[in-house]
Amino acid sequence: MFSPPAPSRKQDASETDLAKHDEEDYVEMKEQMYQDKLASLKRQLQQLQEGTLQEYQKRMKKLDQQYKERIRNAELFLQLETEQVERNYIKEKKAAVKEFEDKKVELKENLIAELEEKKKMIENEKLTMELTGDSMEVKPIMTRKLRRRPNDPVPIPDKRRKPLNYLLTDEQIMEDLRTLNKLKSPKRPASPSSPEHLPATPAESPAQRFEARIEDGKLYYDKRWYHKSQAIYLESKDNQKLSCVISSVGANEIWVRKTSDSTKMRIYLGQLQRGLFVIRRRSAA
Q1: Is residue 183 part of a domain?
Q2: pTM summary value
Q3: Cα Rg of the chain (Å, integer)
Q4: What is the tens place of the pLDDT at every residue in 96-120?
């Protein structure tokens, strides 16, 4: 059987040298690639420090755009908020001016109504005193002045004396009038044309009393409770019947608003107690 010839020693040496040469070329090429990569990184680092790196410039441009966009949005938001605040300020200012004018008109109307009510009270009291006679009038006592004798000392007026206040309250006046009426009634019969037999209205009958008080913001009058926004009828001394609504309940008075012209009136507890005004529920009237 035929067998191939065995390789010679010279051939083995040449193959070994070739493998060694290839290995040295691979190592040299790998080292060159490393050096090139290192040089490229150093070059990019240098460009980054100088600000000329393309990737750096690209990202910086993107950041700059984002920064400008945020600044523009912030300015728009500031402008919108400023305009909204200015609109709210103008609106609040107009509302404050309107409220001030309304309060001023309301205060003026309340003062006018209060003065008119006091005027009516004085007229009612005057009419009551005229109907009950002039027994309440206090006549001055006539004194006789004597001539001063030559040797008498001249009287010195006492400037330290203070004037006394003889004014009575409304309750004291009404109590005195009731007492006078009781004293006058058994003495002589009253004729049909006398004031005692005239049709008595709530303002002309001082002896008539009504229970009226205010508790917890509600009015208790004639065994009934009345509250704010309740519809009522208000009867005055001249037999006028007004349709009203209770607008507020104070400490010693109530305010009512007429449904006809929306004007307001103040009614004091003393007037309700003396019968100068009579309140009826609108449903029951």
Answers
A1: no
A2: 0.29
A3: 55
A4: 999 999 999 999 999 999 999 899 8
